Description:
The structure holds two protein chains of two kinds. By secondary structure, chain A is of the alpha/beta class. Helices cover 43% and strands 24% of the residues of chain A. Chain B has helices at 2-24, 49-65, 204-217, 224-255, 257-270, 279-286, 290-314, 318-326, 331-368, 374-383, 387-415, and strands at 84-94, 97-108, 129-134, 139-140, 156-160, 163-164, 170-173, 176-180, 186-190. Chain B has a five-stranded mixed β-sheet with strand order 3-2-1-5-6, with no helix packed on it. Chain B has a four-stranded antiparallel β-sheet with strand order 4-9-8-7, with no helix packed on it. Chain B starts with a helix and ends in a 7-residue tail after the last helix.
Amino acid sequence: MSGLSIDKLSMRFDLPNGGSVQALKDVTLDLKAGELLSVLGPSGCGKTTLLNIVAGFLAPTEGKMTLNGHEIKGPDAERGMVFQQGALFEWMSVRDNVGFGPSMKGMPSKEKAEIVNHLLDVVGLQDFKEKAVYELSGGMQQRVALARCLANDPDVILMDEPLGALDALTREKMQSLVLKLWKETGKTIILITHSVEEALLLGERLIVMAPRPGRIHKEYRLPFAELGVEADLREVKKHPDFAVKREEILGMIWDMEEEIMGRSEETA
Amino acid sequence: MTGLILPVVYIGIFAVAAFVFTRIGAKKDGYTALKTVTFGDESAVRPNRAAGIISILTLFLLWGMFTGSSLIPSFLHAPAPFKGETSFEYTVEANGQTDTATVAVLVHEREETPDTPAIEEGDGIAKNDSIKVAQYRSQLVSFDKNDEVKRADGAKVVAINGTPVVPGDTVEIEGGSVTISDKGTPNFQPENGLQMEPLYLPSPEAVVERTGKVLEEGFRGTSLLGHLGMSLFRVVAGFICGAIVGIPLGYAMGLSNWFRGWFDPIVEFMRPVPPLALIPLVIIWAGIGETGKIILLFLAALWIMAIAARSGVSGVNIAKVHAAYSLGASKWQIMRHVIIPNSLPEIFTGARVAMGVCWGTVVAAELVAAEQGAGMMIMVASKFQNTDIVILGIILIGIIGFGIDMLMRGAERIMVPWKGRG
Lengths: 268, 422
């Protein structure tokens, strides 16, 4: 069985004062190989917790996950991760960052150099390969992070708000790049974002999560990612359905935020 | 007097130079020139190069001025102590008779031993006298030794240079002053001027000359470089031992609960203990030889390096560790490729602090007891009043301490260029 399967996943954190927080409750999700899923939700809905569990950094209190038929127990090279920022190794050049995964596997240097060169071409950083990563702009750093993840050829790529810290223009360019890489490599991708537009543009599937306890509120299948592979993203945004979906989801999240506010006012 | 004039002269030079160079020669350059808000903007404050140069020159100028250095023109010198011949007259009264005689005075430098000036005794009941006195000293004039009337006969001095005096009075004369003691004896005190006595502060050229001499002959059986090399060797040996034990200890404390729990109380207790406070115990345990010194410096460096390595590990952004695991790195590979490089900047900072502390500690330890070393050199020199060697030693200790820090900074720039850029 190919793909990622998440079955009745629950996560409860115990608090030092004796109470506990139900971060996730009965999250069930099946992702076929090559699907791009974006995850939206108000803060505190457990998106990042979900991603950390899938990455293997956290063990769930209940439920289980399988990838291609085997159970996920901890972090592994089969599930690559792209972080918001700060996860590059600043003591290495761009080339060594991208080649980190292959080096860890002990790949012969010639083979590794080919992979690295190819990926630097893909993300457009061939001229910067000898530079230190701290000399690059934020957008370029995220390109390095993408290339580093791809160099390891993972089955699933997990992205935790990878474009969150970028300015609007760079962000748009990077969104195109993510779509292009998705189409070219055929990877399964889970992308967490705060931006409704980004979730709509990039998500072939989209789930909206609700807080307290964190759960899947609604799921969509969207045509925009397929369109975006070919067309300009600004053209995609003009699609009649785009504005409708955006308003719907914004309203949904807005209501959730209202509810949270109301509830905390009650307790206060 | 000197103690008051010196700061006044220093502040004067500071103020005048500041006025000249900031008002008259003011020229800003670059981006800062366009800033309208500079007061309160720390980034607009750059050390003024002219001020730096003048500051150093002023120190040497003051040193030269107040020691009468031959390196600067003599009109800049503070008034020198009197040297040469002078004389004064005293009037003796005995049995109703009075007579006046002259005292020839020779003031000489302390190292010289000249003859007392030759004089003719002259006539009358008081005969002429002659004395010699070293600079900064005073001399009682036993005026009645060659006189016809003695003090025992009731002879007493009633006037100096024609000024009537009683015991306790002081009369200023050329090149000094004469005070009549309680017992009626004139006491000559040459003028000290405003310069420092070489015993307290030798002139710059005396220090340079002594440097040449010590370089040539060594000090206490060891060459100058031998003394400094010995101190440096102790620092380097102690520091390396401290780093070899401290860095792995710090890593273990940063990576394992058990190590953290076991060593935290020890490290946190030992960290605030000044290494100097350990000197007596180390001497009791290991004696005053090399072993004791290196143990002391090892202890001085150990805690600093352990804490630096520990905070280097704790400072790793967890995202980097997660990223490395997701890229398939093993625990050992994470140690080697993520934790160690990430902690190097902290370790270098710790090493700089540790080297500084070790250098201070070694000098102090050598002051207490040592056969060789920079601290021993200045301690022994001070016991023999060789102030020039003391000053030479202090300057060299300062230069070496500064050099160590520069070296560590240079190494840091080359080895961890990513410091503070993550």
